[in-house]
Amino acid sequence: MKKVLMVLTSADEINGAPTGYTLSEAAHPWKVFRDAGHVVDFASPKGGTPPIDPNSEADEITEEYQDDATVQAGLANTAKLEFVEPDQYDAVYLVGGHGTMVDFRGNEHLARLVSTMADGGAVVSAVCHGPSGLLDVELANGLRIVEGKKVSAFTDSEETEIGLAEAMPFLLSSELEAQGAVLQQAENWAEQVSVDGLLVTGQNPASAAGVAKEVVKILTTLVREEKAADEAAADALREQKDAEKESAEQDKEKPASE
Q1: For residues 45-84, b (16+ Cβ closer than 10 Å) or e, as one string?
Q2: Dist CA 56 CA 61 (whole Å)
Q3: CB 173 within 8 A of CB 131
Q4: How does DSSP classify residue 128?
Q5: Which parts of this chain are annotated as the region Disordered (predicted)?
Q6: pLDDT in tens, 69-111
Q7: Cα–Cα distance between 122 and 114 in angstroms, integer?
Q8: Which helix (H) or strand (E) is 75 found in, with range?
Q9: What does the pLDDT average to over 237-248?
Q10: Could you tell me the pTM of the whole model?
Q11: How far is 210 from 33, CA to CA, in rounded Å?
């Protein structure tokens, strides 16, 4: 069992229009993480209850998410990013939604969280507009987290198709590419998930569950590696104890000196 932190926007409007996080981009990954046996916590820039984008589409999974008592308790009082301890989590997932274009990029607390987790070997993941939280994030090696990495995010073409390109403070995919990301893009609205080491990103709402599944695969591998390491350490300890016991018995069998 691992711990996953889901980060949601606190922004409820953009250029005067209501916004927030995309419901399915939180609900579908939540179900994947939960069904895999992982613990899911929630955080946001301002804490409290994050706003849901009114344009979010509903389905059986989003209904399950909204009916789940544990989820609702967590969403009613999400942790403020500045108080989150990165070393408490094995993976972070940045939930998309146009609200993230307002308060993810340039948030020093989110940047600290992402960079610390990445430097510490945790999984960093995001979907749709969530990768806005990866922009300008620098790692301990001096490189930006997306530099030279395969990355998928909401495309400029998709933004244009829904008529919001002019309303955005920047075009996400263009900015990621400008920071060295190697964009992996599918046709508009088709699923596209990119995995590059411990960085997992997805293009749009259709990619949300796929991102979570890839994160689970990585976490499963980490669990197996940890278990193998623990077993190897236990075997080594048993061998040491057996050797010490054998040596002690041999000492007892030696004749006493006159």
Answers
A1: bebeebbbbeebeeeebbeebeebeebeebbeebbebeeb
A2: 13
A3: no
A4: T
A5: 229-258
A6: 999 999 999 999 999 999 999 999 999 999 999 999 999 999 9
A7: 9
A8: helix 69-76
A9: 72
A10: 0.88
A11: 11
